[in-house]
Design brief:
With about 525 residues, this protein is an alpha+beta fold. Helices cover about 45% and strands about 25% of the residues. The longest helix is centred in the middle third of the chain and has 38 residues.
Amino acid sequence: MDIIQDGDFSFSNGTLKRDFELLTQAVNASISGIIITDNQQPDNPIIYCNEAFERITGYDRRDIIGHNCRFLQMDDRNQKEREILRNAVRNGEKCVVEIRNYRKNGELFWNELYMSPIQDEQGNVTYFIGVQNDITLRKKAEQELRQEKDKMEKRIEERTRLLKESEEYLASIVQTVRESLIVLDVDYNVISVNQHFLRTFKVSSEETEGKNMYQLGNGQWNIPRLKELLEKILPTNNPVIEFEVEHDFPHIGKKIMLLNAHRIELEGQFKDRILIAIEDITERRSIERRKDDFLSIASHELKTPLTTIKGYVSMLERLMPENAGEKFKGVVNKTSTYIDRLNNLIEELLDVSRIQTGNIELHKEAFDFDKMVRETVDGLQTANKSHRIVIKGKTTSNFVGDESHLVQVMSNLLSNAIKYSPERDEILVYLSLVSNYLKVSVTDYGMGISPEDQQKIFERFYRASDIQQRFPGMGIGLYICDQIIKNHGGSLWVESEKGKGSTFSFTLPVSERSAV
C-alpha cells in the first residue's frame, strides 16, 4: 500500500479515501445546504453543492454548478444583504446574512447564509464555503408575532365583510370570463361552473352542479390525468399552472386542455374550495402542428433547388474568364455570399423542425474541446475585422459530444455578440472546468437585454422589440443553441443589463472517460 509522507505524519491512501468518503457522506446527510465557490475564477462560480442545497433551492446540480450565488435572488436585486456579501468576498471575510432567495419554481424562501473564506498557505483567499438554512417558517412566525391581536381580529373581520359583499360581484366576473371555470369542494363535487364551461362541453347546469366531477356525463370526466392532478399533484403543489390533459369526449371529440388549478383554504362558507380554469388549446395545437409541418416541408423543398443554384454559382466561379470585369466578379461573389446565408437560414429551419419532431440526431465522439473553440473563434475573427475576440482560460479536456452541433452553438453566440455590440470592438470568451462541468462564457459589451426579454429569449421565434427594429432575424438561433445544449445534458443561460452588455454561458457535463 502506498504511503503519503508529510513532515512527521504519514497516512495510507486507503485511510484518506475512507475519510474522504465519510466526509462526503456526512456533508450530503446534512440538512443544511452547503456550497463551495472558486474565488480564483471570474465571478466566483459554484464548484460544489450537497444534496440538501438541491432540495432547498429546487435546482438540479447541472443548473447550479458554474453559476454565481446571486442567481438565487432572481430579479430581487436590491437587497442590502447582497452588498454585505459582495464586500465580504472582496475583503476575504466571513459573514452571516438573512436574505430572500427564490426556488427554481419561483417560490420565495428566506435563507440564513453563513459564508467563510478558505485561504492557502500564502494567505490568499482561494475558496468560499457557504452554509445555508431555510428559515422561512421562522421568519413567518416572527412576522406573525409582531402583529397585535386586535389588529389581526379587525383584519379578519374586514376580510370576511369584503368577501360577503364581493360574492355577487365575483360571480358575475366568473360568468364573463372566456375560459371554462369550475369550482369543486374537497370531495370533488361540483359547486358551480360558468357559462363558458356549459357551452364548451355541451352540458347544462342541472347536469353538472351538485354532481361528482368524475361522474359528469356518465363518467366522461373520469380522466386518469385529471385524477392525478386533483389527488396527487395539487395537494403537494398548490397552485398548479398549465397542466395539460388530452381526452376524447363522446360528443365533442378529442380535446387538448390546459388546466390551472388552485386550492383555496379559507374560513366560513368558502372553506376548502378547488378552482379549475380550463383553456381549450386543441385548435392552437393544430395550428402549431400545421406550422411545424409547413416549416419542415418548405425547408426541404427549398433545399433541393438551392443546392442546384449553389452548384451553378460554384461552376461560374471556376469557369470565370481571366478577363472578366470586376463588376461581373463582384456580382458572382455577392450571389455566392447570399446563397450561403440562405442556406444557413434553411439549415436553421430544418434544425427547428427536427427538434420539434424529436428527430434531432447527435453523433457523439471524443474531440479536443479547447481546439474546437479556438478554431471557431479563428474562423469568425477572419470574417469580422471590426471586433477582437479574446479567449481566456482553458478546460484542457476532451469532450464526448457532437462537435458540429457545438460549433454551431459557439458560432451563434459569437455572431450574436458581434452583431449586438456594433459600437464596441471586443468580445471575451472564457473557458473553465468547474467541478465535473465544462463552462464557456461569451461576453459582449453592447446593448444588453432587459429582464423581461431574458425570460423569453430562448423561446422559438422570440425577438425583443428593440432588437427587432434594428437587426433582421427570425429568433430561432438561441432556441436551437438551448436545445443542443440540453440534448448534451447541459444548461444555457444569460446574464445581462441594458446598455452594459450580455454574458451567455453554458455548462456541459464531462464524463470520467472523456476527461484528460
